[in-house]
Known about the structure:
This protein is 30% helix and 24% strand. Helix 6 crosses helix 7 (219-230) and helix 7 packs antiparallel against helix 8 (234-241). The protein has eleven helices and 16 strands.
Amino acid sequence: MSDHYALILAGGSGTRFWPLSRNTHPKQLLDLFGDGTLLRQTLDRVKRVLPAENIIILTNRLQEAELRRQAAELPPENIVAEPLRRDTAPAVALGIGLIAARCPHAEMMVLPSDALIRDDEAFCRQAREALALAERESALITIGIKPTWPCPSYGYIERAARLEDNALSSPCYEVARFCEKPDAALAAQYLEQGNFVWNAGMFVWNVAHVRRELAAHAPELAQFVTQLCQSENPRAAFAELFAGLTPISIDYALMEKAQRVLNLEAAFDWDDVGSWISVGSYLPRCEGNATNTPLSCEGARDNIVYSAGGKRVALVGVSDLIVVDTDDALLICRREQADSIRKIVGKLPPELT
């Protein structure tokens, strides 16, 4: 596995899970379920596939200190803070460049740090298969999630012909196209057709091959990667060059244009955990409410209650609320307004964001 690498993307903001999350502690750095932060779970999972020295984490300057604390076993140079946000394509290109400078013909995975995956064994088995597939096939590989409901909040991937490869334990398909987040009706149509999967932002490829694809479809990023590889000090080079890159997602910049993309159907469970409502589905139940803390209820149902300090909460005659208590802030929100939590963050004092 010396020529296999992983790039873990661990930036983002701390708005959806306010007041528990802050700019320095977004979702992936929180222990939401009492079994470790999502970043820590991701890192422990990947370390079952690759040595720590082959794992690179990208973050931002606000979150760098806490991330280094949580990933202290990685070589210090493997944790890289972007000087400013430039969306996923520049971030992925940075990872490609850093890895290519070490091992020009490596295979690499690109993984988010904030998804909840419980079946580690299935993930590790499929990660090894995907890396081996990237060695055999001249293609960019995605890992897609078989949809369980017509979710309008995810991007979708339309699959075409199935790839015949006896070395794979999960189905693999040629990709017909990437689809933007649909409305509810179109998402339902995708689900009914049966050949669409959720785009989970997990990619696997050979470094030399993805550099050829970048040269063909994203020359600015290809040049950036080349400059990193040719530099005697790639980290110093990226600090100088990164700010000049055009902000764009990796899907727009590359995946939608690449000559050949394959999709492996995920053999493991997956949850984006995109809101407090998602968290509520994993919390213990108390009289029809989801809670991580002692709860006393009178005529209260279908609420989500989270206390960072384990405070007892009493609910009387209320329903469909999200209640989140921390030592310096309290959130009370209707469940159907969960997506609006990020809007209130812009109206808060700086010390609470």
